[in-house]
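Lecture 7 notes: from sequence to structure.
We start with the chain below.
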Amino acid sequence: QVQLVESGGGLVQAGGSLRLSCASSARTFSNYAMAWFRQAPGKEREFAAAISWSNSITNVADSVKGRFTISRDNAKNMVYLQMNNLKPEDTAVYYCAARGRVTLATTQSEYDYWGQGTQVTVSS
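Predicted structure tokens for the same chain:
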């Protein structure tokens, strides 16, 4: 089974940056498209960013476009979310997700595995 573990969350001021990391136990990590979703208190989980099996194809939500960048390192079985110019509305639990296909997707139902989540809190 694929296990995902997120890290890098924390408390930052508006305008600051954080880099989230997701470690995957997938034996064939290169075959999995990866994504980040987030869920704010009282709200449904929403798509943030996704990446295909390679770094050639990525997609980010309009709400974070220009501020968030998703990347992966298949040699290390890692996926990252670089978050810059953070805003209070970015406050949420961020989840790493894996899909058993190489093509990225933006709907949570299309992902098969999920991490435990990491809290990101942006003040002001």
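Points to note: DSSP finds no helices and eleven strands in the chain. The first strand starts at residue 4 and ends at 7.
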